[in-house]
Amino acid sequence: MKLEVNNSPFNEQQVTQLNELIRSLTTQQKIWLTGYLSATSLEINVGTVEPNQSSVAVVPAQAPAAVQAKAKDITVLFASQTGTAQGLAKKYGEQLKELGFEVNVSSMSDFKTNNLKKLDHLLVIASTHGEGEPPDNAISFYNFLQGKRAPKLDHVNYSVLSLGDSSYEFFCQTGKDFDAQLEKLGANRIVDRVDCDLDFDEQATAWFESVKGKLQEGAVEQTLSEKEAASTVLAIPATEYSRNNPFHAEVLEKINLNGEGSNKETIHLELSLEESGLTYEPGDSLAILPTNNENLVNSLIQALSFDANKSVTVGENVVSLQEALTNVLDITTLSKPVLEKISEFTANNELQELLQNRDELKQYIYGRDLLDVVEKFGPFTWDEQSFVTTLRKLPSRQYSISSSQAAYPEEVHVTIGAVRYEVDGRQRLGVCSTEIADRIEVGDKVRVYVQQSPNFKLPSDETPIIMIGPGTGIAPFRSFIQEREERGAQGKSWLFFGDQHFVTDFLYQTEWQRWLKDGVLTKLNVAFSRDQEEKVYVQHKIEQHAQEVYEWLQQGAVVYVCGDKDHMAKDVHETLINVIAKQGNKSKEEAEEYLTELKAQKRYQRDVY
Amino acid sequence: MVEKIVLPPQEGKPSDVEEIKIESNYLRGSLVESMADETSAGISDWDNRLMKFHGSYLQDDRDQRLERERKKLEPAYQFMVRVRMPGGVSTPQQWLKLDEISEKYGNKTIKLTTRQTIQFHGILKWNMKKQMQELNSVLFDTYAACGDVNRNVMSNSNPHQSQLHQETFELAAKISEHLLPRSNAYYEIWLDKEKVVDTQEEQEPIYGELYLPRKFKIGIAVPPTNDVDVFSQDIGLIAVVENDELIGFNVAIGGGMGMTHGDTATYPQLGRLIGYVPKDDIVNVCEKIMTVQRDYGNRSVRKYARFKYTVDRLGLDNVKKEIEKRLGYEFEEVRPYSFDHTGDRYGWVEGENGKYHFTLFIQNGRIKDIEGYPLKTALREIALIHKGEFRMTGNQNMIIANVAPRAKKKIEELIEKYNLTDGKNYSALRRNSMACVALPTCGLAMAESERYLPSLITKLETILEENGLQEQDITIRMTGCPNGCARAAMGEIGFIGKGPGKYNMYLGASHEGSRLNKIYKENIGEEEILASLQPIFERYAKERLDGEYFGDFVTRVGIVEAVTDGRDFHNKVTV
C-alpha cells in the first residue's frame, strides 16, 4: 500500500518523505523497522500512539488499559496437508499467547472430541485437499462434527480461516464446511470466514487482525509490558522468508537427470542457502516464486491489443502492464472465479454458456490458459486496468526438497519435472518448471522460501520405512536416505521407484546403487512402464513383494507415498489394501481399517500432487 | 563314463579367468541372479566373463559415459549378442527373425562380423532372455560365439563353386556342433530347460571344466579364394579338390591376429601347414588339435594364451607330433594349392548348379537404413520373396545366394529399386576395406574404426584417382585396438588404433593373405597418414610390375620388410 494523506495519519511532507524512505528499504529493513517502531513507540509513550488499522505489526489495535482479568481460553485447530495451515496456526497461537491469552494450538487429529464441550473460543484454520476433501489429519474430526454424536456448541465463539487454490472447483471447501457446521451446531461466529487463495498472506493477516480485535474487545485485555513488546520485536525473526519476502538463492548446479532420448526432463537443482539462516527438514518443500514466460506475456498483450507499457495498479503497486503480467499475476491457471470476472467484460454468449455447464467448464479449463480465453471469447470491453483486476496473483510453486541439511548444510536441492504439453496446436509450458529448465542457469538467483510439511516426516531412526515414489515423487526419499546416512540410522528402508524407461529415467540411479551397496538402503525395487509390452508400475512391484511388505508393516514400518495423486497414489492405496487383506487374512473392510489406523498413527503419510 | 580331463601342470599362477571358469559350475556362475537384478542394467565383471561363453558380453555406449555420470545414471549398459552361424548361412526366414530382433530389442542395426556371422548391439538386460528364445525359435543359438572355446567356424562362400560350398558349409557346421560346449547351462539360463543333474565331466568330454586357455578359431578355404583368411586361424583348412571333388584338406595351425601394444612378445602370426588329411576324419583332426591347445596353452597369462604362442613355444614339429600321437596316425604331405585373393567378387554370378548369386557390398558390414539407402528394409523385402539363402562373407559382405533363374528377375527388381550396390560405384579400395566396431560400444577400443574408416578412404580415393589407381584392388583394414577383429595385420594397408585419432600404420601384407604387414609409421594422425601414403601411391602407380599388388610392391622395393613369420612382425630393437 502506498501511503497517502487520506489513508494515513501523516501530513503531505511526511507522506512524501516516508514514501521515499520506504521505497529505498529492503524487505528485511522494513521488517526490522516495523518491530523497532512498535517497541520504541510504546517505550516512549504507551497508549498515545494513534491506532493504525492497516498496520501488519503485532501492536494491539487498541491501546490497552492496564486491566488484569482472567485470560480467555483460545483453541486453535488446524487441518493441514502441506503444513501451511499448521504454520499459520502456530504463528497466530504464539502471538495470542504474547497478548496474554491461554492458547492451545492443536492438529485436529490430536484434538479429543470430548473436549468440545469445554471450548471457549475456537479458531479453525483449514486447508482443502484435492477435490474439496479435508486433509488427512482432519478427516476423523471432520466426520465427527458432521455426525450424530456432535454436541451442541452454543457456548463456543469461533471463526474460520480457510486456505485453498481457486483454480480448483471446490475452492476452500473444507473451511466452508467447518464454518457451516459450527454455525449449525449453535456456535457463535465472531469474525466472518475468510477464504484465501494461494497467495494467502495478506488475507490471512487481515483475518487474524480482525479476530485479534474481537478477542481483545470487552473486559479481557492486557497490557503489553515493555519487555513483552521488546520480545515481540525479537519474535519476528529477520530470516522469516515467505512469499512476500523470499530468499534469493543462487543456483549452484542444474542437471537434467534424464538421459539422452528420454520423454522426460527432470531438473535436479542445487541452491545455495548461504547466509540465509534457512532451515528445513526431510519431507519439507521448497516454494519457488516463478515469473511468467515472456513469449506468452507478449502473445497475450498482443491478443488483447493492449499497450505493454501502460501503467496499471496491482495491489499497492503501480507497474507497467508487461511487468504485472510477467512478475505479479497468474496468466496460466484458469478457474471459475477468474472466468466469471472475465465474463463481465464480454457479451460473448459462449463464455456464459460454458460457465453454466460444470462438466464442459472443467474440460475446457484443463490445460488451457488466459490466452485461449482472450482469443476465444472476445470482444472485450476492458482496458488494461480492469483486465489486470480480474486476475489473481501468481502463486509460488512447491517442490519436495530432495536433500538433507545434515548432508548439505548450506544447500537445498529440488527435483523438478518440466511440464510441456500441447493443446489446440500450441505448446504449453509449466510456468515454474520450464522457467527453471529453460531460462535459469548456474549463477542465477531464484526466489524461494521453505514450506514445512509436518505431515511427511521421518520416524525414529530404528523404525523401518517403505518409500513409494515414482517419477519426481522420489525427491523426498533422497532427502530421507541422505538424512539417515548422516545420522547412521539403523532402521531398514525400502524404496519403490518407477518411471518410463530404465536406461534414461532412473532418477539418481548411481546414488541409490551406492546406498544399496553400503546398506543405507535395504531394498530397492523398480518398475519401468515402457520397457516391455505390458505396463509395469510401482504397485505391481508392491504386489509382487506382498508378503514382505506386510511383514514390514507388522514390524511397525512407516509407509510414505509421494508423487502423482490422481493415478499412482490411488492405485498404490488400493494395492496396499489388497496386500493387507490377502497377507493378513482380512476382509476388505478390515484392511481399510488397518490402513486408516496406520494413518492415525502417522504410519501412512502421503505427499501427493 | 568319460574320464576326467587332467591338465598337465603349468608354471605360474592361473589367471583370474581360470578361477572364474572353475568356480562357475560349467558356465553357470551367478548369471541367473545377475540377470534378475532389476537395479542395474549391468552384470558383475565375474558374470560378464562367463557371459562370453553364452555368445554375449556387456558393453556400454562410451559416447555417453561422461554425460551419464553427471546425470547420476550408470553407464548405458547394453549387451552385444553374437549369433553362432557356421559357414555364415542364414535362410530368409532366419534373416527376417534377425531383422525383427534387431528392431525390437537391439539398436535397429545388424553388424556382419569378420567371421561370417552377425551381431546385435544395444540389447538391454531384461530383453536378453526373450531375444535368445526368439533366436532359438528359428534354430539359431549364440552358444560359444565368444569365450574360451571354439568360435564360429568359417567356410568359403565363393558362389562359383556351389557344390563345394555346400559340402564345406556342412563340414563347418559339423565341426561347430562337435566342438560346442556340452554343458546344459545355456539351455537352462536362456531357454528355461530343466536343470540337468549328471556328472559334470560327462557334460564336457572334450573341454573339461576349464575349457580352453583362450579363444579358438577354425576356418575352411577353397582355393583360389582365401576369403576366410585361412592363415589367420588357429586351424586353417585348405580344401583339396580333385576332379571337382573335395577329397581332403591341407591343415595349417597357429595363426592368430591379436597382440598387445608395447609387448613385442605378442604378435600376429600366420598359420603354418603341417600336412594333408582326407576329409572323412577332419572333425576328429580339429578336436585333437584343439585338445593339444587345451592341455598346453598358457593358462597363467592370457595375452600369451593363444594357440600361436603354444606352437611357437613348443615348436611346430613337436606340436605336429603331439597331434599325430593323439590321432594315431601321421599327416600326409601337403598337397599343392594356390590362392589369388582374400576379397569377395561382387555382383551377379552364375554358379555351377545353374543358380544365381548376388554379392552385395556392405560398408564395414553395417546393415541399417540410412536416408537415401534403406539397406535393411531392402534386405527384408528380398527375404520375403527369396527362396535360396543369405551368406555372410568373411569380408563383412553378403551374398544373396541360390536364386533360381526364374526368381532372379524379382530379386533384381528389388536390387534396382533400392539401388543396392555391388560396389562398382565405389573405389576398389573401399570394396576391399574392413573395420571392426570399436567406439562407441567396444570396451577395448582406443580409437575410432567403423565410424572413421569410410571418411579416411574418401580422402585416400582422391590421391588414388590422381594416380589412376581407383580400380586397383588394395586391401585396407582398420581396428580400434590391437586385438585384431578386422585382421588389420593382414591388410596391404593396416591401421591399428593407439589413441583417439592416432594409429599405427602397417604396409605390405599380401593380397591373397599369406604374408603379414609391417609397421611403417607409429602413432600418426590423419594428416600424416595421407602425407605418408601419397608418395608411396605415386611411386606404386609408376613403378609397379604388371599385375603387381600394392602389398607385394612395397615389400619388393623395400619400403617395408616382408613378414612371413609373426616373430618378425615387430621391428628389431636396435641396440
From TrEMBL, chain A:
Residues 74-212 form the Flavodoxin-like domain. FAD binds at residues 332, 397-400, 415-417, 421, 430-433, 609. Keywords: Amino-acid biosynthesis, Cysteine biosynthesis, Electron transport, FAD, Flavoprotein, FMN, NADP, Oxidoreductase, Transport. FMN binds at residues 127-130, 163-172. Coiled coil: none annotated. Residues 244-459 form the FAD-binding FR-type domain. One of its GO terms (molecular function) is oxidoreductase activity, acting on NAD(P)H. One of its GO terms (biological process) is cysteine biosynthetic process. It comes from Lysinibacillus antri. Its EC number is 1.8.1.2. Pfam families: FAD_binding_1, Flavodoxin_1, NAD_binding_1. NCBIfam families: cysJ (TIGR01931), PRK06214.1 (NF004859). It catalyses: hydrogen sulfide + 3 NADP(+) + 3 H2O = sulfite + 3 NADPH + 4 H(+). It comes from the Bacteria. The keyword Secreted does not apply. InterPro entries: CysJ, CysJ-like_FAD-binding, FAD-bd_FR_type, Flavdoxin-like, Flavodoxin/NO_synth, Flavoprot_Pyr_Nucl_cyt_Rdtase, Flavoprotein-like_sf, FNR_nucleotide-bd. This is assimilatory sulfite reductase (NADPH). The keyword Repeat does not apply.
TrEMBL record, chain B:
One of its GO terms (biological process) is cysteine biosynthetic process. Belongs to the nitrite and sulfite reductase 4Fe-4S domain family. Alpha(8)-beta(8). The alpha component is a flavoprotein, the beta component is a hemoprotein. Its cofactor is siroheme; [4Fe-4S] cluster. Keywords: 4Fe-4S, Amino-acid biosynthesis, Cysteine biosynthesis, Heme, Iron, Iron-sulfur, Metal-binding, NADP, Oxidoreductase. InterPro entries: CysI, NiRdtase/SiRdtase_haem-b_fer, Nit/Sulf_reduc_fer-like_dom_sf, NO2/SO3_Rdtase_4Fe4S_dom, NO2/SO3_Rdtase_4Fe4S_prot, NO2/SO3_Rdtase_4Fe4S_sf, NO2/SO3_Rdtase_FeS/sirohaem_BS. Siroheme binds at residue 485. This is Sulfite reductase [NADPH] hemoprotein beta-component. GO terms for molecular function: 4 iron, 4 sulfur cluster binding; heme binding; metal ion binding; NADP binding; sulfite reductase (ferredoxin) activity; sulfite reductase (NADPH) activity. Residues 174-328 form the Nitrite/sulphite reductase 4Fe-4S domain. The keyword Metal-binding applies. It holds the Pfam family NIR_SIR_ferr. The keyword Iron applies. Component of the sulfite reductase complex that catalyzes the 6-electron reduction of sulfite to sulfide. This is one of several activities required for the biosynthesis of L-cysteine from sulfate. It catalyses: hydrogen sulfide + 3 NADP(+) + 3 H2O = sulfite + 3 NADPH + 4 H(+). One of its GO terms (cellular component) is sulfite reductase complex (NADPH). It comes from Lysinibacillus antri. Binds 1 siroheme per subunit. Binds 1 [4Fe-4S] cluster per subunit. Pathway: Sulfur metabolism; hydrogen sulfide biosynthesis; hydrogen sulfide from sulfite (NADPH route): step 1/1. Its EC number is 1.8.1.2. Residues 75-137, 352-417 form the Nitrite/Sulfite reductase ferredoxin-like domain. [4Fe-4S] cluster binds at residues 436, 442, 481, 485.
